[in-house]
Amino acid sequence: GLTCAHVVSMCFADKDLIYMCPFNAAVKGKVLITNYRLYFKSSDADVAVTLDVPLGAISRIEKMGGASSRGENSYGLDITCKDMRNLRFALKQEGHSRRDIFELLFRHAFPISHGLPLFAYVTQEKYEESGWDVYKPVEEFRRQGLPNNKWRISFINKGYELCDTYPTVLAVPYKSKEEDLRRVAAFRSRGRIPVLSWIHRENQAVIVRCSQPLVGMSGKRNKDDERYLDLIREANETTKLTIYDARPNVNAVANKATGGGYEGDEYQNAELIFLDIQNIHVMRESLKKLKDIVYPNVEESHWLSSLESTHWLEHVKLVLSGAIQVADKVSSGNSVVVHCSDGWDRTAQLTSLAMLMLDSHYRTLRGFEGLIEKEWISFGHKFASRIGHGDKNHADQDRSPIFVQFIDCVWQMTKQFPTAFEFNERLLLTILDHLYSCRFGTFLYNCESARDQHEVRSKTVSLWALVNSKTDIYLNPFYTPESGRVLYPVASMRHLELWVTYYIRWNPRIRQQQQSPVEQRYKELLALRDEYLKKLEELQLSDSTPSTRLANSSTPNTSSSNSSTPSQQYTHLQTPF
Amino acid sequence: MCIMRQGHKEELMEFSEHIKTANVEDVVLHQPLHPPSRGTLCITGHHLLFSDREENSTRQILLLLRNIDAIEKSVENLLGYSSLFSKADYSKRISGSSGTITVKCKDLRVLQLDIPGMEQCLNIAHSIETLSCLNDVSEMYPFFYRPSDLSSQDQWGLSSSEKYYSEHKELHKRWRLSSVNRDYSVCPSYPPAVIVPKDIDDDTLKKVAKFRQSGRFPVLCYYHRKNGMVIMRGGQPLTGANRKRCREDELLLQAVIDSSDKGYIIDTRSSQQVQQARMTGGGFESKSSYSCWKRLHRQMEKGKALQESLIKLVEACGDESQNMDRWLSKLENSKWLSHVQTALSTAGLLAECVERDGHSVLVHGSEGTDCTLLVSTLAQLIMDPCCRTLEGFLALLEREWVQAGHPFQLRCAHSAYSHVRLQQESPVFLLLLDCVWQLWRQFPLALGFSEALLLRLATEAYFSNYGTFLCNNDQERCALGVKEKTYCLFHSLLKPTEKEHYTNPLYEPTDLAIWPSVHPQSLQLWRGFFLRWTPQTRHLEEAQEEIRNMVIEWGKVALS
């Protein structure tokens, strides 16, 4: 733990202080602060308390108590984290010990505010695979069967001139010309024109994503935009295009006042459906309420009604049920357009979840990495603004747990379909931990153009490098690939659960019992499965005609190029953690 | 047309007075998870049989009438309607009329039967109503059930006090097996043999029995091998308003512990409740008379309160309205999960006394036939790895519930849908199974049995082909010859063909105690049972099955 080879400088060490542990009594110990983490270890061997907090997870540091504070342990530091916990440390008043720690923490937790590089640029971690190759847009389109005679790949955004928050490679209707795209961009918020995210291999129905049309108070029309949407409909010869506006109807109307709006009746051959998903501010407040009832103390007497009053699960339900509607429409052969206001929060949630339901490729470990890279990172979910990496402005109204909510939805799906996902809960937890940690470049910056500018790919390591270097701990032993299967989770409150192992994981009393034996057992099962697959292969080699049992067996398809078997993925590497 | 098994012929004769219409053609059955189907409905003494008459598939649904908790029929509006017609039209109208019977089952399934002909519909409804609540145990189906794959020569049951005693040689120094109750005269709800302190003779036991409710004198139900401590259970002491004492009772408890040691009494009632109990002749072990015993009170709901909680929960689960934003409040208001929490935390307390503090414990409430058994069973699961295997768990249930005299007949007469005035119904056993499920969820490797077993038991307790859960106690079962005339459920569950289905493929025995987390955040609704008839739960069941098959297959091939 402590001897982290890749931390460039040990900034501060061996400071005695008291951790005001909310679950036990105050714990005396030593704190070690590096440019990556805050590490605390109790000095009393009987109370084994350790804390290991990446500085990136810190959203706020406050001094508590002044020089004249009287009460015991009332003088110290109060740290608010982005990952559902708060930390309190008490210090002695004499000397300048608090000032030193505070300044050190403040500087390294918020490097951007101090003109310092994020930790991802400092760390020297090396992995065999860089991780930046898990998603290559052109290859992904090819996997989907594109380009074809209806859809073409456009490089119009090569220099980010059309839209500075979009990726460079876009799939657009074959019949649309580059100048059409430019005219449509002028009518879509921030130039985020409708582009293809996913195409159904059999019925050719597509998921198209974009931002809201700039209708405004006067109800402006744009013939190019109308024609462009009709090209999308035409591409698979259906009579109607469905536009899902993720927002509640009233919000969409209100957006007209600021120049936005939604597609009106002038869009012939299109129907508009509002999905009633609330905006980033509502989601932020909802999660804040959830934190209030789970940290530090869990609500005991009225747990369920308190949980209900946070509305968190209700929001999860609405996101999931929106995605189900999208997936259902597409699998029944109708193309859909999805947008919200700017098309980088709710839209990303809906398209990525619908794709997860429709396409089993995204349910593999590498497929899921690609899905996040594609729908979230490349299409400009504003990670920097939503998370506030290295930024001291904890009250920034742009911050919002939209991506956390997406991962929550994925977790709900893995719970409902325990054999449908190649990855396990540990992967989801790891992703969320490094969403904040700033150790990897993966979630840094708001969009591709900013990432290019800051040379993220050449100067930082990808989270997927870490994950793919030791896949066995992220794999679900019971994964059964079923390529054609569309997963429809049940988005009813009755079947949704609070993700306790994430939101309440810091509480030692709630923590799932005996987690390690379970993980150990799953590891053994993975090994057993590998052994089984090996035997199976031998049998297949010795017998040229595969038996029916092999054909029916519910085990991963080893021949598929997409789903790599665990044995192929085992690349044991020395990692610092 | 009814393809009935042997034994049904006599059965049909016997119950014919209740069956005016035995067969109806052209009935439409609506059931969860299936599209509606048209076929023939047939009523026998114990079953409702529906045969699908789709070509090349003869699907049959055989429903034990005992499974039916309530029915609702709707033919009324047709009657009102018919008055508009002349006499001639009337009969025509009747013959062309139809009715609908909604069948609500104890396994929480809700079926709907559309029956042509109002009279037939009423006849069927009448038969179901009568035959589903026959009170005479000897007329119940287990006495008619003749499975081909079980022989009546099979031994009945898995465990008993005798067997437990002989398996625990460590007990023999200080404990003995008493047959004071061989003719059920000392305690009608106890089995003939019980384990008691060696120093206490049968005469003393008889006196103690008079001082304990329903004669349930304290008996040993668990021996903790790690430290030699025990769990005892019994009924409340009948101290009454005058604070009566019983020297023999005090002696018995003294004999449980060494004079230097102390013990705990866990009373499943609050200290207020036990004071009130004195007014009706009950009471508690006072500090002055039982100086070595420390009383701990944990109020547990039982009886009507628990039954009402179940009714509310099932109602909330069955609420099909789209407006589900109040679901969590409804779930909370049902209080079911807080009953689960109380049961698990009281069991945790009991286990802590024995395992961590190293003291023996006597547990009781008032009668000692409900919450007492719930707590002692859960504590044994927490502490004793032997109870966590499939066989061990069934044996535990047999000792702690069937033989210990949990009144299944009274408690499980009706479930959550029933319209009849509730008498002694209470889902204590269901609560136990729910608590065990919570353990199973929190410790996915520690229990040797599957969720499927818990689901099976949750229905078998209410209606069954087997005799295991018939009657209220051993004495009644003996009088009816249950062991001779019916088959044992536990043996059937352990048949090689069945057993695999009921084992946990991930099972890895551990000698450690499994301490459950009882915070509300750690407890979940047992969807597998309460939302059983939803497609999502069905999918999950199938996935569990798939995982089981996978693990078994890997083991076979990889280790071959």
From TrEMBL, chain A:
EC class of the enzyme, as a word: hydrolase
Residue ranges, annotated region (Disordered): 543-577
Subcellular location as annotated: Cell membrane; Cell projection, Filopodium; Cell projection, Ruffle; Cytoplasm, Myofibril, Sarcomere
GO cellular component, as recorded: filopodium; late endosome; plasma membrane; ruffle; sarcomere
Enzyme active site: C340
SUPFAM superfamilies the UniProt entry points to: (Phosphotyrosine protein) phosphatases II, PH domain-like
Protein origin, superkingdom: Eukaryota
Record-listed substrate binding positions: N279, I280, C340, S341, D342, G343, W344, D345, R346
Domain Myotubularin phosphatase, residue spans: 131-503
Biased composition, class Low complexity, residue ranges: 552-567
Keywords: Cell membrane, Cell projection, Cytoplasm, Endosome, Hydrolase, Lipid metabolism, Membrane, Protein phosphatase
GO molecular function, one term: phosphoprotein phosphatase activity
Residue ranges of domain Tyrosine specific protein phosphatases in the record: 310-356
SMART domains per UniProt: GRAM (SM00568), PTPc_motif (SM00404)
Feature: compositional bias, Polar residues: 568-577
Catalytic activity: a 1,2-diacyl-sn-glycero-3-phospho-(1D-myo-inositol-3-phosphate) + H2O = a 1,2-diacyl-sn-glycero-3-phospho-(1D-myo-inositol) + phosphate; a 1,2-diacyl-sn-glycero-3-phospho-(1D-myo-inositol-3,5-bisphosphate) + H2O = a 1,2-diacyl-sn-glycero-3-phospho-(1D-myo-inositol-5-phosphate) + phosphate; 1,2-dioctanoyl-sn-glycero-3-phospho-(1D-myo-inositol-3,5-bisphosphate) + H2O = 1,2-dioctanoyl-sn-glycero-3-phospho-(1D-myo-inositol-5-phosphate) + phosphate; 1,2-dioctanoyl-sn-glycero-3-phospho-(1-D-myo-inositol-3-phosphate) + H2O = 1,2-dioctanoyl-sn-glycero-3-phospho-(1D-myo-inositol) + phosphate
EC number assigned by the record: 3.1.3.95
Family (UniProt): Belongs to the protein-tyrosine phosphatase family. Non-receptor class myotubularin subfamily.
Protein name, as recorded: Myotubularin
Gene: mtm1
